[in-house]
Design brief:
Pfam families: LytR_cpsA_psr
Mean pLDDT: 88
Organism: Brevibacterium yomogidense
InterPro entries: LytR/CpsA/Psr_CW_biosynth, LytR_CpsA_psr
Helix content: 25-40%
Number of helices: 11
CATH class: Alpha Beta
Protein name: Cell envelope-associated transcriptional attenuator LytR-CpsA-Psr, subfamily A1 (As in PMID19099556)
Strand content: 15-25%
CATH superfamily: LCP protein
Family: Belongs to the LytR/CpsA/Psr (LCP) family.
Distance between the termini: 25 Å
Structural class: alpha+beta
């Protein structure tokens, strides 16, 4: 099986390497550093692990946005992609999305660091249009849905769907079941998992035009913290060069739903499972535990 490398790890073999690096590092793509992270004294200590907070801005109102944490342990022996339900209750009946929308990324980072126990090193925003473009460049994606539904003119079946970029965006933004976004979060995880399984590294290295398409969308649709440079991503990709597809696993962050007397659904973290996930992320080998979560349906 081909070894997994991110697109940036192959820039050295692409004639447009310097162009894409310069565009990604352009100061206009950097969000203000002072508005991104909480005070250092309340944060987990800096380690050799690398963790990135990714938000895909999928819908104008933010309800269909994808909140994801991507974690590579210090040993660089796995990558865990953890998808949050933004409707999860954090405190005082306020949801993750509400707190982030009201107070910005410092609160988002503080919440993730508190519950996962790992320091967020970088933040990146990707537009839904950019993710759709990446999917069109490498797809379609064979994506599993637990329920049949219709959204934005697309009909999705229970079972495997083959999604292009536009269909994938509708699939991840829709809220097909009244369960406070639990089904939508699983659909978002399913698309990210399908994307990871569909990326064909050997094809990308042989087809420079496809690689350029992926990079065009990824670079032009991104905003990020000033410290996340093309050099940082290239070094991380190089560190992860020996990973295979089975070493990169996408799961939902463990959460439970409870229907209230008024008919609404309340989403909270599954405390015991989250504690075990937190312990695994602060070790050198979270990959095995995260893979077990995937087998359990998370």
């Amino acid at each position: 099986m081909a070894k997994i490398r991110t697109a940036l790890s192959m820039l050295g073999s692409a004639k447009d390497a310097k162009k894409f690096a310069a565009r990604f590092d352009d100061p206009s793509r950097a969000m203000p550093a002072e508005s991104l992270f909480p005070p250092d004294e309340v944060r987990p200590e800096l380690t050799d692990a690398r963790t990135l907070l990714l938000r895909v801005t999928n819908t104008p109102d933010g309800h269909g946005d994808i909140f994801t944490v991507v974690h590579a342990p210090a040993a660089r022996n796995s990558v865990s992609v953890l998808v949050f339900n933004p409707n999860i209750i954090i405190e005082a009946n306020a949801t993750l999305r509400e707190l982030v929308d009201d107070s910005g990324y410092p609160v988002a980072v503080a919440i993730v660091e508190e519950f996962l126990g790992t320091r967020i090193d970088h933040i990146i925003e990707l537009t839904g249009h950019a993710l759709s473009g990446i999917i069109d460049a490498v797809g379609p994606l064979a994506t599993y849905s637990r329920a049949a539904f219709t959204a934005d003119g697309f009909d999705f079946v229970e079972g495997t769907n083959r999604l292009d970029g536009a269909a994938a965006r509708a699939f991840t933004a829709a809220n097909p079941v009244d369960d406070a976004g639990q089904t939508r979060t699983r659909n978002q995880r399913a698309v990210l998992r399908a994307l990871l399984n569909t990326l064909d590294v050997r094809k990308l290295t042989k087809d420079n035009s496809q690689l350029v398409q992926v990079l065009e969308h990824a670079v032009d649709g991104s905003q990020k913290d000033p410290g996340l440079t093309s050099g940082v991503l290239t070094q991380l990709a190089n560190d992860l060069r020996d990973l295979t597809r089975k070493d990169i696993v996408a799961v939902t962050v463990p959460a439970a739903s409870e229907r209230q007397e008024d008919g609404s659904v309340r989403i909270t973290f599954e405390a015991d499972v989250l504690t075990a996930l937190r312990e695994s992320l602060t070790s050198d080998g979270p990959g095995e535990f995260v893979a077990k979560l995937a087998e359990m349906g998370y």
